[in-house]
Amino acid sequence: MNVLSLSAIQKPLIIGHRGFRTRYPENTLASFQAALDAGADMIELDIRLSSDGHLVVIHDAEVERTTNGEGPVISYTLAELKQLDAGIWFHPRFVNERIPSLEEVLDLVRGRGLINIEIKVEPDHVFDANHTIEQKTVELIQRKRAETFSLVSSFNKKILENISQMDHPPAIGVLTEYDEKQDVVTLCKKLNALAWHPQYLAVDKNQVLLMHEAGIKILPYTVNSKEEIEQLFEMGVDGVFTDDPIMAIGCSGL
């Protein structure tokens, strides 16, 4: 079974962080569509579980910041989440924009680009016997035959470990914090990861060389200035997560 490979890509990837976040309400179909229309190679999104076990696209554990609702995402069913307005907070022209399901976004992206699915759980997350959110994510990717354009990432290393041990896992991206102290080359090799996703200020030329020597791509997040993107491209990174794909596409080397 084929999984995502970046080996044939000759230029740095432009990855729309939560879509086109500077101009559209984040993590919505409008935002993802705009990022793809702008020329982004990949879109990035965050997923959580609804109370009835559906994979929904939202960053925060609570719905207040990006919808007109209140309370934890996990307290809503998918149908209830679909009743919330996920666009009006950003601008009135996005009234009635909805929280999408992961399945909807996979359908949108297919044939148009790549997708980075970040699995969100809280620090006190309790794993059950079925590793629910990561199991559901992999099962959906397989059911939708989306392995060739999907990359699954998380800050939670247990989630990534669980995915790496599944039958026919999708490509994995290892997210790390700015001040995270560990041997990321060893960690990525252990997880058979495709890519390392560091906070961009933590990246230097030596790290890029070490990762590349190990056969691991490096995709820093979240870079929103032309100067910083150009510096990272000069270091040899394989792509950047950005809130403004048009700005990033305009940088040198593309």
- Please identify which CATH superfamily we are dealing with: Phosphatidylinositol (PI) phosphodiesterase
| Backbone shape | globular
Q: Could you give the count of β-strands?
A: 9
Question: How is the biggest beta sheet arranged?
Answer: 9 strands, mixed
What integer is the average pLDDT?
94
Domains, number: 1
The assigned structural class equals alpha/beta
Poorly predicted parts: none
> Please, how many helices?
9
Helix percentage range = 25-40%
Briefly summarize what is shown.
By secondary structure, this protein is of the alpha/beta class.
Please provide a written account of the structure.
- The chain is an alpha/beta fold.
- The protein has one domain: TIM Barrel (Alpha-Beta Barrel).
- 29% of the residues lie in helices and 16% in strands.
- The chain contains nine helices and nine strands.
- It has helices at 29-38, 78-81, 102-109, 132-143, 157-164, 184-190, 205-213, 226-235, 245-249, and strands at residues 13-17, 42-49, 55-57, 114-119, 150-154, 171-175, 195-197, 217-218, 239-242.
- Strands 1, 2, 3, 4, 5, 6, 7, 8 and 9 form a nine-stranded mixed β-sheet that branches.
- Helix 1 (29-38) packs parallel to helix 3 (102-109).
- It is globular.
- The two termini are 31 Å apart.
